[in-house]
Design goal:
This protein has three domains: about 200 residues, Phosphoenolpyruvate Carboxykinase, domain 1 (3-Layer(aba) Sandwich); about 270 residues, Alpha-Beta Complex (Phosphoenolpyruvate Carboxykinase, domain 3); about 80 residues, Phosphoenolpyruvate Carboxykinase, domain 2 (Beta Complex), CATH 2.170.8. The strands form six sheets. Strands 11, 12, 13, 14, 15, 16, 22, 23 and 26 form a nine-stranded mixed sheet that branches. Strands 1, 4, 5, 6, 7, 8, 9 and 10 form an eight-stranded mixed sheet that branches. Strands 2-3-18-21-17 form a five-stranded mixed sheet. A hairpin with a 4-residue loop joins strand 9 and strand 10. The protein is about 25% helix and about 20% strand. The longest helix is centred in the middle third of the chain and has 17 residues. The chain is an alpha+beta fold and about 575 residues long. The protein binds guanosine-5'-triphosphate, sulfopyruvate and manganese (II) ion. The site of sulfopyruvate has 9 residues, from helix 7 and helix 8.
């Protein structure tokens, strides 16, 4: 075989994977526009992609009806010691898992092209960036990786070490057999990580988080294990730049669980006059302490794989303006005139829609036209408020960190932690109602510490300790302030108490001024809350938004005590003390 690259380690791995999976041919991706157009055209020819008349160089596609979300029950962390995966991850012995994978992947690419995708997570020259190579038999994955990462020739040229990741849809093709529109293997899905070997194996799904291995698999699960070993943080966080009317700029990072508002906050159009937001990242942040002692963050991604439903010119105009061209839409509805549509875009469904299932849409069915987890894929560079600092190899200095979830009750709109350790407790205490981003029941309250429950590549108890350790690497005055936020509290009428979206800028303003020691706050049992928020022009039930119900909170603490017990000796004593102090304050 001709050597595909000048990297001997990479060549050896490609040969090994080709021998195992037996593809029809092997193709090394160069990441060029020409390559993108060619592969997209092939998918159009195959009937997988439908070009959109209303959006240049953009495509609509829909998946197999059972391949629409992440599959947490099929996701594994295979550390040598079960204890290192912790109580929140699925675990299997690495040797046993490797045997399963050898069988699964044997011949799984027969009749297909094996694409080799070299990519970089983060700016090409950043000391924080990490390289990966994804081998896949899915051209859909290649196209999405082109939009989501720095992929191809340049990544290969800069690459030294890399995280190998192999992905297969898990459907070999016999000679002359017609391919499925969305090949996948829903009854046999495996998303497998070997944190010690820094290796990823994914089988049976073509869906984003399961198949685009740079994202959740590398940047979060393997990334968090790297961060633990190397002294940095890999987080499920957006990064935004906030400029006040005087022109002073600060950066904020925020962790919310899947489909809980990161993309929306990261691209927010403030309703407060004079305030400006720029977007560094909408899903993942890698952070380390810089030489000045402050916490610096990069966005390892280069694009957005965002939730479509609910996105409109009212809620998130910047997202709408980002995907006007060069975008891929998966599982949204298709309009008669060749555009996309989803629930919450504007008004009721237009006539003549094709649903996400590829069928004529019947509004009387009571079912949504777009899947609740339908998504757009688009390059970050097209975002009208893309922050140029997102390309800064050193990252941006973070002044505040937010933790938030979907909580109908108990949690106030905003509270500030008393200290770094108390802030770590806020992160560890995060719970949220489940969403359509993962397979399973929607709307069920569950613990989701740091919004990392599905993404932490090692023992979550050790992860809490790592956060505490990060706080000891510098002085308290240089650390970001930590906040808990809740846009989703409901009133007795079952409606959201807070307008959210652009009005979240009011909360950001208070945070901005707190980090400058300007805004005033009142101490409560659970943290500092604002003495006053800028609520000019809106009417909200402030009392209910900030109500701290002692009984609810005592229950909350009981629930946390019980939950944290799962981590046994891995749960840090310092957090135990923080929780005990919270109980006492209540
Ligand atoms: P992932 O990409 O899955 O990690 O999700 P995300 O955290 O980026 O979530 P996203 O911003 O896409 O929001 C998901 C859903 O929450 C969308 O349907 C939004 O319309 C809705 N949402 C976002 N922000 C707000 C808000 O401030 N208030 C309310 N009520 N809903 C919001
Ligand atoms: C999430 O589920 O948190 C996402 C979408 O950001 S996916 O990349 O599919 O996991
Ligand atoms: Mn996410």
């Amino acid at each position: 075989m001709n050597k595909l690259t000048s990297n001997p380690k990479l060549n050896r791995w490609i040969e090994e994977m080709a021998a195992l999976t037996r593809p029809k041919n092997i193709y090394l991706c160069d990441g060029s526009e020409e390559e993108y157009k060619r592969l997209a055209h092939e998918l159009v020819q195959a009937g997988v992609f439908v070009p959109l008349q209303k959006k240049p160089n953009s495509f609509w596609c829909h998946s197999h009806p059972d391949d629409v979300a992440r599959v947490e029950e099929n996701t594994f962390i295979c550390s040598k010691d079960k204890e290192d995966a912790g109580p929140t991850n699925n675990w299997k012995d690495p040797a046993e898992m490797r045997q399963i994978l050898q069988t699964l992947f044997s011949g799984c690419m027969e009749g297909r092209t094996m694409y080799v995708i070299p990519y970089c997570m983060g700016p090409l020259t950043s000391p924080l960036s990490r390289f990966g190579v994804e081998i896949t038999d899915s051209p859909y994955v290649v196209l999405n990786m082109k939009l989501m990462t720095r992929m191809g020739k340049e990544a290969l040229a800069h690459m030294k070490e890399f995280v190998p990741g192999i992905h297969s849809v898990g459907v070999p093709l016999k000679p002359h057999e017609k391919d499925l529109k969305w090949p996948c293997n829903p009854h046999n899905r495996w998303i497998v990580h070997f944190p010690e070997d820094r290796e990823i194996w994914s089988f049976g799904s073509g869906y984003g988080g399961n198949a685009l291995l740079g994202k959740k698999c590398l940047a979060l699960r393997i990334g968090s294990a790297m961060g633990r070993d190397e002294g940095w943080l890999a987080e499920h966080m957006l990064i935004l730049g906030l400029t006040n009317p005087e022109g002073e700029k600060k950066y904020i990072a925020a962790a919310f669980p899947s489909a809980c508002g990161k993309t929306n906050l990261a691209m927010l159009k403030p309703t407060l006059p004079g305030w400006k937001i720029e977007c560094v990242g909408d899903d993942i942040a890698w952070m380390r302490i810089g030489s000045d002692g402050r916490l610096y963050a990069i966005n390892p991604e280069a694009g957005y794989f965002g939730v479509a439903p609910g996105t409109s010119m009212k809620t998130n105009p910047n997202a709408m303006l980002t995907f006007t061209k060069n975008a891929i839409f998966t599982n949204v509805a298709l309009t008669e005139d060749g555009d996309v549509w989803w629930e919450g875009m504007d008004g009721s469904a237009p006539a003549g829609l094709t649903s996400w299932l590829g069928e004529p849409y019947d509004p009387a069915s009571g079912k949504p036209a777009a899947h609740p987890n339908s998504r757009f894929t688009v390059s970050a560079k097209q975002c009208p408020i893309y922050d140029k600092e997102a390309e800064n190899p050193e990252g941006v200095p973070i002044s505040a960190i937010l933790f938030g979830g979907r909580r109908a009750s108990t949690l106030p709109l905003i509270a500030e932690s008393f200290s770094w350790a108390h802030g770590v407790l806020l992160g560890a205490s995060l719970s949220s109602e489940t969403t359509a981003a993962a397979k399973g029941e929607v709307g069920k309250l569950r613990h989701d510490p740091f919004a990392m429950l599905p993404f932490c590549g090692y023992n979550m108890g050790d992860y809490f300790a790592h956060w505490l350790e990060m706080g000891r690497k510098t002085t308290a005055d240089k650390l970001p302030h930590i906040y808990s936020v809740n846009w989703f509290r409901k009133g007795s009428d079952g409606k959201f108490l807070w307008p959210g979206f652009g009005d979240n800028s009011r909360v950001l303003k208070w945070i901005f001024e707190r980090t400058s020691h300007k805004a005033k706050a009142t101490k409560t049992a659970i943290g500092y809350v604002p003495d006053s928020l800028d609520l000019q022009g809106i009417h909200v039930d402030v009392k209910s938004l900030f109500h701290i119900d002692r009984e609810e909170w005592l229950q909350e603490v009981d629930g946390l005590e019980e939950y944290f017990q799962r981590f046994g000796e891995h749960f840090p004593m310092e957090l135990k003390l923080e929780l005990a102090q919270l109980k006492k304050r209540l």
